[in-house]
Amino acid sequence: MVAATNGAEQIPTETIQDIVEELLEAARYDDLDDLKRLASIGVSLDSKDSQGRTALDMAAANGHLDIVEYLIGRGVDVNASNVENNTPLHWACLNGHVELRNKFQQEQM
Q: Which of 13, 43, 76, 103 fits 38 for a cystine, CB–CB 3.0-4.6 Å?
């Protein structure tokens, strides 16, 4: 199976899924350098995995403030919801990272 891109180039769906997984892992494990590298090669920071999770979800769930700030600063959707309708703010609070609440509230103002 092949997914279309903006140009004439075609990227296999399996490759896209691998790249999205790499993006989410970078956010989950607080690897800002890898996240920036992926963004620099054109990976959308709003990409979702098969469960609808984003890099912001992973960073918020694990309390990685620097990743959260980077992603929000790049304009990612702070209200994106996964298949269970959880948002990054839900992930942060569900995992005890209520200190991130202010970051999300500031963005929504």
A: 43
Domain that holds residue 82: 16-107
Q: How far apart are CA 1 and CA 14, in angstroms?
A: 8
Give the CATH number, domain containing residue 30.
1.25.40.20
Measured distance CA(14)–CA(58) in Å, rounded: 21
User: Whole-angstrom Cα distance, residue 60 to residue 74?
Assistant: 15
Provide the number of structural domains found in the chain. Answer: 1
The answer to whether position 5 is within a domain reads: no
pLDDT tens profile 8-43: 456 667 788 999 999 999 999 999 999 999 999 889
